[in-house]
Write the structure tokens for this entry.
Amino acid sequence: MTEFRTLGALRPAGRSGGVRSYLLGTLAALILAQGALLMIFGDALLPVLAHGLGSLTEVCQSLALRTLLWSGGLTLLFTAGIAVGMSALLTRPIQRLEAHLEALRGGDYRARSPQGGPRELRALADGLNDLAARLETSERARGALVSDLQHEVATPLASLRGYLEGLEDGVFRDDPEVWAACTRQLERLEVLLGDLSQLSAAEAGVSLRAAPLEAQALMQAAARSAAPLFARKGVILECLPVPSELWVHADAARVEQVLANLLSNALRHTPPGGRVRLQAAWDAGTVRFEVADAGEGIPREHLSRIFERFYRVDPSRSRASGGSGIGLTITRHLVEAHGGHIGVASEPGQGSRFWFTLPAPAGLNQVSAP
């Protein structure tokens, strides 16, 4: 006996088959059922079955249309959600960068851009943070410079005013020592203004007239200029000989200025009867100049700041000796303008050794230090 499967037996057991499996199973069941009825009842059922097949086609078309509409709607919603998420992902970091720019425009250099977003936006945030840090450092330096200038100028002006008021009120007589003291304060102001002018020019960019120069000639010229000052204080200046093959590629006037500043600094910190040594040697592609003194030395915690403007290890002593506090800063700028380096080695009670390097001319033979 022929066995016929029912419509329910051909329906998928669960939802795992999906809508497509369900439709295929239903269609197959209907076709089998109608075939079985034809075999039993003959041609009398053809009109009825034809009408049933037409209804089945309409049902399948309706289900397919609904499936298409639901799939399209879900796809549209999913795409819209992704678009909104991507827009927020890109817009928020840009808004934060815009807020940071507004803060910088308003003078808030302590503000920083938070990290986030795509790689390009993170790189832009890093650049803005670096710019903000530089502006913050520059602003602090400007404030420190104004404060230091006020103090440096106020001290000699107050001294001058005291002497002049004393002369006017009769407290001081018309004594040459009083006028000499006034002259010293005026000279101190002149030195300060001159150093400030040099510092401003050095920081703005030094114009160099570089040429091959003999190291020994540069050292001897600086020593001759400083000799009267050393003799007046009773300090011995030694200019050690160097091989004639030792040359540098530099601006002669600027190098002599560097040596003069270092010799003047050594003289201020060396007691009478002491000794200052000037020497040079070949140092791995550069020429290294060195000024060594027999002064009180520099504590280790001050070495990293010794080339900052207006920085003094002992402010009272430096002002009394006539130093402006920016000579070493000028020296650093001049050396770096040549592409060289400058540094110091010192221990308290053992003197200091200031050194700087200058490039050697290409194609000239150099010798090593003994």
User: Anything to note?
Assistant: Strands lie at 211-214, 236-239, 247-250, 275-283, 286-292, 342-346, 352-359. Residues 150-204 form one domain. Confidence is low (pLDDT under 50) at residues 1-16, 316-320.
